[in-house]
Each structure stands twice: as C-alpha cells, then as structure tokens.
Amino acid sequence: MLRKSEEKKLKVRKDDSFMLRYLRASDFRPKEAFEKMVKVYKFKAKHEKYFCSKSPSEYKELLSQNFITILEDRDETGRRLILAKLGDIDTNKTSVMECVRLNDLWMELAMDEEETQKNGIAIILDLGGLPMRLFKFLTPKVTIISALKEEMRPWKKIDIHVVNTSSLLDKLVSIVYPLLGSGIKQHIHFHGQDWTSVHKFIPPEVLPEEYGGYKPQVDFPKMHKYLYDNEDKLMELFSLGYVKS
C-alpha cells in the first residue's frame, strides 16, 4: 500500500498489524486507507505539540492521577472501552496539553489490538467534579484540534458518551459543541446521570458500579502495567510520521 505512493518522507510501520489499522477502518479499500494514513500524519506534522513523544514511565506521576484508562472488559460487540474522568485532573500539577498527549498512550495501544481494529471503541467522558479553572485552558482551539485528532484516528467505529454533567457544564458544553465538526458530533451522546440511558449503548455487565454497572472499581495499577509492558512499542509508534528535512 505504501510502496506505490509518492510520500517518500512518510515513515510508518509496514507490518500487517499496523497496515490493518487503516485497512479495517476503510473496509479494506486500499486507496481510502492510504489517504486516511496520509491525512493522520499530515495533521500530526502540523500540530506536533498535541501528540505524545514520551514513554509511559515519564508520565508515571500524571498517570497516578487516574483520570484516563482503558477498562478491563470489552462490551458485547468487542469494542474497547475507555474511561476519562476529567474531574480527577489536578490542574495544579499538570497542563491540559500534557493531558491531551497522555491520551495517546491508551489510544495507540488500542489501535494496535486486532479486536479493537475490528470493532472500534466507546469513550466514557465523565465530567463530574470538573474544576472550573480547567475551562481557562480548554480554549476553542485546543478543544477543536483535540476533537479532530480523535476523529482522524483509524477507528472502525467510535462513540463518545458524556456523563455526570451539571446545568453549568451543560451551558459551557453548549458553547463548545457548535464549534465541532459534524463528523465527530454525530458520535457524541449526552446522558447526564441517567445510567439507564448509558446502558442502552454499553451494558452494565462491563461497567464499574459508579456508572450503574456490576464491576468493582477500576484497577488502575493493573491497567498502567499494560502501558509499561508496551513502552518499546509505544515509543516506536510515537516516532512515526513525516521525517523532517
């Protein structure tokens, strides 16, 4: 797929697992898959500061805040589930940009999983306890570029479920939401604190108790080990893209 292109400066992995990220996301249409790959890495080259270049070990302190992780179980369709609890971010110890970059650790590993490539992901975006000072850093530019970054990833399917919003947060979200592209907006679902609504999309059997599920609390150290065990793979993935002249 790549050898026939004129993108001589584009450095990517050429193994089956990596190429299948894009082929599966495009229903095995090679031209569309390649165009998607080029689009992703051109976006990365243009917005490099939004992408991760550090190892999980370098993010150990930030990871200890436990505001984003994958869940151990998949849903009944095989989707990988990702939980982001923005209210747990300590804005006195980190920046929004570091949080945006940290997200890549989980997303890159998920994209390398065969089952995730085939079935996609669902993100639970928990806004409960979100500190108002965080909105000072969530400028329209940061919000839009971060959303575009997620929309561009080669997912077979992606859905974002926003939970634990308040009336004030609803007003703030209503300001940002119209700025997002139609592509990402059609995948966003707002549930407030209505767990029955969430369970229409994600069964309670795979969710922690705090989301009306039957699972115990998330074992964050166990999930972090998944990152640490894959440091070499992640560092290789972070190095991919357009080679600078």
Task: Describe it.
The chain has 245 residues and is α/β, with parallel strands linked by helices. It has two domains: 1-46; 65-100 and 109-219, Phosphatidylinositol Transfer Protein Sec14p (3-Layer(aba) Sandwich), CATH 3.40.525. It has helices at residues 16-25, 30-46, 60-63, 96-111, 114-119, 140-152, 167-176, 182-185, 195-199, 220-228, 231-238; strands spanning 10-11, 68-70, 80-85, 121-126, 158-163, 188-192, 241-242. The strands form two sheets. A five-stranded mixed sheet has the order 2-3-4-5-6. Strands 1-7 form a two-stranded antiparallel ribbon. β4, α6 and β5 (158-163) form a beta-alpha-beta unit. The two termini are 23 Å apart.
Characteristic terms for this protein:
245 residues; alpha/beta; Phosphatidylinositol Transfer Protein Sec14p; 5-stranded mixed β-sheet; 7 strands; 12% strand
Give the topology, please.
Layout: E1 10-11, H1 16-25, H2 30-46, H3 60-63, E2 68-70, E3 80-85, H4 96-111, H5 114-119, E4 121-126, H6 140-152, E5 158-163, H7 167-176, H8 182-185, E6 188-192, H9 195-199, H10 220-228, H11 231-238, E7 241-242
Parallel strand pairs: 3-4, 4-5, 5-6
Antiparallel strand pairs: 1-7, 2-3
Helix pairs in contact: 1-2
What is the strand content? 5-15%
CATH class wording of the largest domain: Alpha Beta
Order of helices and strands: EHHHEEHHEHEHHEHHHE
What is the overall pLDDT average? 90
Look at the structure and name the CATH superfamily of the largest domain. Answer: CRAL-TRIO lipid binding domain
For the sheet with most strands, the description reads: 5 strands, mixed
- Number of helical segments with 4 or more residues: 11
Please name the CATH architecture of the largest domain. Answer: 3-Layer(aba) Sandwich
The coarse overall form would be globular
Question: Cα distance, first to last residue?
Answer: 23 Å
Q: What is the CATH topology classification name of the largest domain?
A: Phosphatidylinositol Transfer Protein Sec14p
> Low-confidence parts lasting 5 or more residues at pLDDT below 50?
none
Strand order of the largest sheet: 2-3-4-5-6
Helix vs. strand class: alpha/beta
Tally of strands: 7
Rg, Cα atoms, Å: 18 Å
What number of structural domains do the residues give?
A: 2
Specify the helix fraction band: 40-55%
Domain CRAL-TRIO: 55-219
InterPro entries: CRAL-TRIO_dom (IPR001251), CRAL-TRIO_dom_sf (IPR036865), CRAL/TRIO_N_dom (IPR011074), CRAL/TRIO_N_dom_sf (IPR036273)
Protein name: CRAL-TRIO domain-containing protein
GO molecular function, one term: phosphatidylinositol bisphosphate binding
